[in-house]
Amino acid sequence: MISVVINTYNAEKHLARVLDAVKGFDELLVCDMQSTDATIAIAETFGCKVLTFPRGENNIVEPARQFAIEQAANDWVLVVDADEIVTPALHDYLYQLVASPNPPDG
Question: 24: buried, middle or exposed (CB in 10 Å: 19+, 13-18, 0-12)?
């Protein structure tokens, strides 16, 4: 019901904690901009769907973020930064919202 999209570039420092915090969501997508550290290996350890977006001349994440959102399997998408921790309270709130009658578009 809810996909989580995380865009990364050399995010190994915090990524395991971030992924541990979102492991209860239905789909985890990591869109990597050609990291040179262990980012992809960490994502694979958590069973994430890993997408690669060529970094090229991009100094901003928006093109990669939109690309990843378009690949999400669910209508509801939670975008999380590679150093942002999702609380259990937010997880529960979102699933209650999605399950409610006439939830807003996600």
Answer: middle
Q: Which residues of 49-82 are buried (b: 16+ CB within 10 A; e: fewer)?
A: bbbebeeeeeeebeebbeebeeebeeebbbbbeb
Closest C-alpha among 40, 7, 20 to residue 91: 20
The single-letter DSSP state of residue 53 is -
Query: What does the pLDDT average to over 45-69?
Result: 86
Q: What is the pLDDT of residue 58?
A: 62
Between 11 and 106, the more confident residue is 11
pLDDT of residue 62: 78
Long-range pairs, 47-53, Cβ under 8 A, ≥24: 48/6, 48/19, 53/7
